[in-house]
Every structure is written in C-alpha cells, then in structure tokens.
Amino acid sequence: MSSTPILSEPRLFSESLFDKMKLVSSGIQELELYEFRYGLADLLPKNGWDTIQLESREQIEARVNSRAYYDSIQIKPRVGDRIVLDVEIVRLTQMLFVGLVTGEYPPEWVSTHFYFDIRGFCFLHRTTYFTERVLAHLGGQPYRRFEQKQKQLEHLQDIGYKVFREANEEVDQLFIQSVTKLIASHGTPILLAIAGATAAGKTEIVERLGAAFQQAGQKTTSIELDNFFTDRDEREARGVDSQGKEAMHLDLLMQALEDITHGRPISTPVYNFIDGSSSHDLNGRLKPGRTPIEVKPADIIFIEGNFPFLIEEILHLIGIKVVYLTDDHVRMKRKWKRDMDYRKKYDLSYFRNRYFKDQFIMAQFAYIPQLEVCDMCVDTTGAALWTTPEIAEILDQG
Amino acid sequence: MIGTSRLRSPLAFSETLFEQMSPLNAAIKKMALYEFHYALENLYPDSGWDSVELDSEEEIERMISQRDFYEAIQTKPRLKDRIVLDESIARLTRMLFVGLVRGEYSQGWINKLFYFDVRGFYFLPRTVYFTETALAHFGGKPFRCFEPRQKRFENIQDIGYLDFQEANLEIDRALIESIQKLIQVRGTPILITLAGPTAAGKTEIVERLLDTFEKMGKKTTTIEMDNFLLDRDFRDNKPMGKETTHFELFKQCLLEILNGKRITIPRYDSLSASSSHDLEGNLRPGCLPLEIEPADIIFLEGNFPFQMEEIAGLIGLKIVYLTDDPVRLKRKWKRDIDYRKNYDPAHFRNRFFKTQFQRAEDVYRPQIEKCDLVVDTTAATLWATSEITDILGSD
Q: Is B90 on the interface with A (CB under 8 A)?
C-alpha cells in the first residue's frame, strides 16, 4: 500500500495530519507543528498508526447516530489512578486521523459530521437539532437571520462570556424585542420558559430579559422547577429518574402555576439538594418544621429548569416557550473557559467523556422534543430567530 | 470599620475585588463579573472573607524573599482524592484579595511585588533575575533595546508559540546576528551554551540558531550534558557538578571536539538512571557510547552549563535566554496543560509557584552573573558584557 511509509513514521504522519487538520479546524492554523505534536502524542496508538483499522464512512455514520454508542461511553474509565479518555472516543479520533492522512475520509466529509475540539484534542459528532419535524413546526425557515458572527470565534480554543455576548448581540436584541412584543400582545401575568443545553447562554439571556422588563417597569419573579422534586429516597424506591413529571409534586406545580398566572401569591415547596428532601410530603402537605417559598405575584414569571416544557400537564399554562440553542462546539469552548479554567470543576478526561456522551442523548431526550413544541427558538450560532407561523404573525403586526 | 459589610457578603466582596483587580491585570477586564465570581469561589474561606487575618506589608515582603517559604510549599497536597492548591499559596492570595478590598494594601505595592495569573487565579511573587552584581557585570544598561511587544500578551490567559515568536521577532533577530558576528570574530570550532528557565523559549531559539548556521554552510552538532552524569546511585541527590559527572571525560571530550576531532561520549539512560560508563570512565560491557562528529558550532545543552569552572573556561559563548515568569506561566498553560496534558492543574500551580524563586537563586542568577549575553525577551533587551560590546559595536 502506497501510504504505509507515512503510517509507520510518526514524524511524517504528524506532519501530514497537521496539514489535513488545518482544513478541518481553523484553530489548528494557529498552532506550531511541535505544539500539534504535543497534543497528538497522547493519542499515538501503542503499536503505531498503521495498526488502526478503518471502518467505512457508512459504518461510522451509523455508529455515531445510534443511541447505544453514546450509552456505552464510560465517563470515568481509569488507567492506574488516572481517569482517561474513553476507548471509543479515542478510537473514533484515531480512525479519523488515519483516514484523513490516507485520504480514505475526505476533509469535507469529516467536517460535515464532526468537529474537532483543540483543547480536548478529539473529534466529536455534530448533533442535529433541526430535524424535519422541528423544521416543519417552525415554518421551514427562520423568522430572521443575521450575520453569523460566532464564525469569528472559530479559531479560538476557549470562549469567555464577553466575546460570546458580543457575537450574539443582533439576534439577542431581536429576541428581547420579540418577547416584549409577545408579552404586550398576550398580556400579563405571563409564564415564560427558556430551555437550553448546558453553556448555551440561558442564564445570561434570562438575566438580560429580566433587566429589560424591570426597566420597563414590569415586575418579574422566577419559579425553580427543581423545587418541586419529591423526596429522593421515595423516588429511588420507585425507580423513577429525576427528569420526568413522576419525580415531581405535579399537583402542587399545576396549582401554583395556575394561581400565579391569575395574579395570586403562591407558596411553593423547597427541595434540599444536600439531603435530597422536599419540604412537602407525598400528599402535598408541608412537613412539620419546614418553610415553603413564598412567591409574590408578578407580571412576568420565569420558569427555570432544564426541561420546562417536557411536562405536558403544564404546557398550556406557559405563555411563551423558548429554546435557546448554541452549537455543541461553541458550548464546549465556553465550558473550557467557564467550567474548567474558572470553576476548575472537573477532571479533564471526565469532562471530555461526559460532554461527548451527553449531547446526543440530551438532544434526543430533551431538546428536540422541546423544539417540536416551542414558540420560538434562538439559534445563536446560526444567528437566527425561529418562530412558529402563529408567533411570526403576531410579531409582524404593527 | 471600612469594608466590613463588603467582607460579609460574598457577592459584594467579589464585585469590589473585581473592580480593584481590573487595573492590576488587563486580562481581568475581559472577564464578565460572574466569571470572576466563579473563579473566586474556589478560594472562598470556610468562615468568610472577614475571617482572613492580614499580615503587614513588611511581613509579607520578608516572607516571599525567604527560601524557607518556597521550600515549605507542597506540590501535591490532597483533599480526599484531589490535589489542591498549597495552603500557604492560597493564604497569600486571600490576604492580597482582602487587603485590596479593605484598602490595606495599595495596588502599586501589590503590582510591584506580585503578578496575578488569571487561569491559575492566584498571585505569585515576581522573581528577581538581575541582581546588583549582574547589572554591574553588564555595565548597568542593556546593549540593545527594542519595543517590548510581549506587552500585548497582558490581556490574554495563555500563549501559543506562534504569537510568542512574533512578539520576539526583533530581539531574536538581534541575538542571531550578534552570535553570527561573535562566531566570525572568535572563530570555529566554538562551544556555545544557552541556559534559560522552563518555557523561556530555549528549545525554539536553539533550533532557529542551528538552522541559521546550517544555511551559512556551517556544520553544527549538540552535546547533551546529561549524558555525562554518573549513575543516579552514585550522585547522592547532589546537583550536577564535578562530583556527579564523568568530569575528566567530559573535559577531555570538549577539548577534543574543539580541536576538530570526532568524539565518543558516554550515554546516560534516564529510564534506568544509569551511565554507559563505570566510575573510572570505562565503557561497561554491552553498553553503547555515543559518537559525535566534528562540527564548527557545538551547542552544549543542559540546565547548568556554566556551573563548573573548568568547563566554563572552554565555552566560547555563554548565553542566558530569559522570559518573565508571568509570560512563561502562560506559555506553560498552553503547552504543558492544554496540549501535553502533562500535569494536574493544581500540582502545576503549586510547582510553578515553588520553583521559580529557588531556580533563580540556584541556577539563573549565578549564570547571569557569569555569562556573555543575556536575552530578556519580555523587556526586549539584549545585555552584553563590555568585552562582547566591544566586538559587536565595532562596525
């Protein structure tokens, strides 16, 4: 085979790969070859690059689009006392490297299905959020699209909030204006729910909306869905996971949302994350010695939580349902800065494994279903605001 | 008391500190307050900011100028199964934070003695490399000065090599040209050494020098000093020196290669920590020595090249390549943490804090006081002894 010398000679291999990778990831162009080699050294197969068996493109595509693949990823595999990168993640990246060098996988194909994270030094699958059904629900095209300024962040290895915010300025502004308009048309009190994946920029946009409403003289408050969890012991005994309505004081939640949308003060349960206990028993009665949270009436009530509109029973109570999306590769870079550099929260390999594993699963479980029922979607990376045709009609009036 | 309420509320504390820190470090201005707050949370004292007792400025100055302080730093202290920041490093940063918020320490005083590393989120003492003796050795002022373009790194958190190289363009060129000229005057074969702290940019500049000489048609080679080490068992943890190397062999080899001869040198295997040669300097059965071809320019590589007087006398050109601690630390974040994934980040922070002072005292200050040329990439200055200045300034 003509490519064999390259595969058996690590220095030639890294040189050739370096050139190919510049086509796949613009950030690589800012590396010196020796820096690239340092990154690559951790992935060098024990018996050399020529021992890596390549799968066909079809096989790889099938694999990275199956739930079983992500379920099998281990988040804390260990060698000695160190957590390491999961073997499947390593294998995928090694295959793509070798296939790029031999020409078996064209760079365009690699870029279509994967993105390369430089700090993690591994390939990750691009998650699809806009399925056919989501597109149909949102009228097939965005309500408005702006210049994609996040493209300017493509060469960066990690992203702080200020540059992120600057890149999203236009779409964020339109989003804030649109929500304001919808509230004016709908009237208050109104429940507003914003769903979004980790590091999409949810917390920050909620804060800016809150500030905008307060400036306009409107009262805001928020309700944490997590506070409606039932006792952990009881949930574990029943074997329910912590993400569905079975894990919640559903009646209390429905009543509370009903009341507050009618301008009445409410008191909600409190969930204690440390000992896993709710302030309320299973019959929805306050336990002796516990204090509930009192929420005063407000014009705009934010519902906080990861999956606010997965619970069908409360869907009709939510006035505006928003999904705030940012592409996986941008969110990962935000997490490098925020969770790794600033918060120093995770082990490096644990972080990479978990991020690789979770995005596909969460998209299937939470974000695609929520996109299919939402009113609006902000796609910060695509710099686009999407709405249902009904919402578009309201926004276009006057 | 001033600031009491600010000390009680963690949010108010971080807001005030954020404002106080912004003028001290340009990279902080690029952070959003909540990012700063996230990073600060790791240093939050168990009993709140108002529980932090402050030392006086004099006490702090004394502490950081003493070797004991650095020797006591643990590089891998653990809390459960995690390596954490050494307690005295954390205490120093907490004191400086609280002192800034309370107005007890001025920004000017802090900035003179410390720099703040944003990724590590801690203060480190600035290391002094140019002593009075060193300044006197170089006639009190640099030979050449350029625009200090590393200033543009002040607002970034980690530095890749391409940016570093670009910032050093002028000073590196001046160094390369000076060496070319000195070699012309002093003749070949010549032995050159280049010493410098970790991540100063040694390896890269040596590679460029070798490249330049080869393009000029000169033959070059390198000798790794470590190959002359005795077996670890015979070194008793002593630093590299006359007693821990095959000294006679070392001297002999250098003399021979300077006379244009091919040399055979010992080979040190760092895995087994053993030399190919026995204590008498004879090749052990079954071991392979290294053959080095004659060359015009011979780079002697190692950390302490001019520590041994008799060897120092054979070196035709002694160079120290310096880059300031804050910049080296940022290079290491990129190179050793992001790319090589070499260390646990807490271990890395402890180790960098601990070793710069010690290394400056043991290795770099003594070498600066004896060398021919110092390149200070951060200040973009080239320092030369009067003898070297005479040669370089002659056209």
A: no
Q: What is the pLDDT of residues A254-266, one digit of tens each?
A: 999 999 999 999 9
3-class SS string, A314-369? HHCCCCEEEEEECCHHHHHHHHHHHHHHHCCCCCHHHHHHHHHHHHHHHHHHHHHH
**A 285-344: CB under 8 A from B:** 337-338, 341-344
- The identity of residue A139, as a single letter, is G
Mean pLDDT (whole number) for B272-300: 93
Taking the CA atoms of B34, B36, B42 and B43 in sequence, report the sign of the dihedral they define. negative
Test B338 with A119 for CB contact under 8 angstroms.
yes
pTM of the shown model = 0.92
Asked if the Cβ–Cβ distance from A39 to B339 is below 8 Å, we say yes
Inter-residue contact A43 to A90 (CB < 8 Å):
yes
Residue of A nearest to B122 (CA): A342
Q: At what angle do helices B169-186 and B202-215 cross, to 10 degrees?
A: 50
Structural tokens at position A38: 């340092």
Q: Is A210 on the interface with B (CB under 8 A)?
A: no
| Residue for token pair 């570093």 | B164
**Omega prior to A189 cis, within 30 of 0:** yes
For residue A160, what is the nearest residue in chain B, using CA coordinates?
Answer: B31
Q: Any chain A CB within 8 A of the CB of B339?
A: yes
Helix segments in chain B, DSSP class H: 4-8, 10-21, 33-41, 57-64, 67-71, 87-102, 107-113, 132-137, 161-167, 169-186, 202-215, 247-258, 309-312, 325-332, 345-359, 365-368, 386-392
What is the ipTM for the molecules in this complex?
0.89
How far apart CA B76 and CA B85 sit, in angstroms, is: 8
Provide the pLDDT for residue A4.
Answer: 66
Q: Is residue A393 classed exposed, middle or buried when 0-12, 13-18 and 19+ CB atoms within 10 A define those classes?
A: exposed
Residue B3 clears pLDDT 80, i.e. is over it: no
Check CB contact under 8 Å for A39 and B345. no
Between positions 279 and 298 of B, the ones with CB within 8 A of A are none
Question: Residues near B174 by Cβ (< 8 Å), separated by ≥ 6?
Answer: B144, B146, B382
Task: Determine the distance in angstroms separating the CA of A80 from the nearest CA of chain B, rounded to an integer.
Answer: 13
- The conformation of residue B152, written as its DSSP 8-state character, comes to G
C-alpha distance from B200 to closest chain A C-alpha (Å) = 15
pLDDT higher than threshold 90 for residue B81: no
Nearest CA distance, A31 vs chain B (angstrom): 7
**Stretch (H or E) spanning B319:** strand B317-322
| Chain A residues close to B119, C-beta within 8 Å | 341
